[in-house]
Design brief:
There is one protein chain. The protein has helices at residues 18-22, 127-140, 143-146, 175-185, 194-203, and strands at 3-6, 32-41, 47-57, 62-67, 71-78, 84-88, 96-97, 103-104, 110-118, 147-150, 158-160. The protein has 207 residues and is α+β, with helices and mostly antiparallel strands. It has two domains: 3-118, no CATH class; 127-203, no CATH class. The chain is globular and about 60 Å long. The model is unreliable at 150-158 (pLDDT under 50).
Length: 207
């Protein structure tokens, strides 16, 4: 199994382009990059994209991950063109990226200067929210139904395709059971309230 390294995750919302992500990767170019986009379904039913660049170093046996802001659209220039075009963010899913920031979509389209257009979310999802969510999913043993890629904390937890989370509504354990599980996994969170659990799960459409 390769090791995973998340690069500057707290700076995610400051990044605006694929080049911003590749600038954090080794300059020797000894990696192969792939863009992955997971879906996050808002309470309105709208789905936005969670974007990450995965860079695999086969020699080191490691994968570096750089995330970008949650977004709906991306912009870029086709190879040989100066015209900026706008694309649905999910067209970037599975694209290959090199050290110069050039992106090749799965349909063969090559793009330069690719930027993401951040989406305005109706609420702020905090690190604590993500921890509560991942622990709840682990307690439910529902990772395989929702996982897309490994997360920076709590193996074998994985980042989630959040568009699938509303499908777990009605299956969520009682909040006191969730609290006990979280306290066991992370004693520092033993003072969480049932209301905080409910608020977090409501954000993701699970309640």
């Amino acid at each position: 199994m390769p090791s995973y390294e998340w690069l500057q995750p707290d700076e995610r919302n400051k990044r605006r382009s694929i080049a911003d992500a590749t600038d954090l990767l080794p300059s020797d170019g000894a990696w192969r990059g792939e863009i992955r986009v997971g879906g996050l379904q808002l309470l309105s039913g709208e789905v936005v994209g969670q974007v990450a660049v995965f860079a695999k170093n086969a020699v080191a046996g490691s994968i570096s991950i750089v995330t970008l802001p949650t977004c709906k659209k991306s912009r870029g220039r086709r190879q040989g063109s100066q015209e900026v075009e706008e694309f649905d963010i999910f067209r970037l899913d599975g694209a290959i990226v090199d050290g110069s920031g050039t992106v090749e979509l799965v349909d063969g389209t090559r793009l330069r200067a690719v930027e993401v257009v951040p989406a305005l979310l109706p609420y702020n999802v905090t690190d604590l929210d993500w921890r509560i969510l991942h622990h709840t999913i682990a307690l439910m043993e529902a990772e395989e139904a929702c996982c897309t890629y490994p997360t920076p904390f709590g193996q074998p937890n994985k980042a989630l395709d959040c568009s699938k989370l509303p499908g777990l509504r009605g299956k969520v354990p009682p909040r006191k059971e969730i609290l006990r599980y979280i306290a066991k996994q992370e004693p520092a969170l033993k003072r969480l309230s049932r209301q905080k659990i409910a608020d977090t799960l409501h954000k993701f459409g699970m309640l």
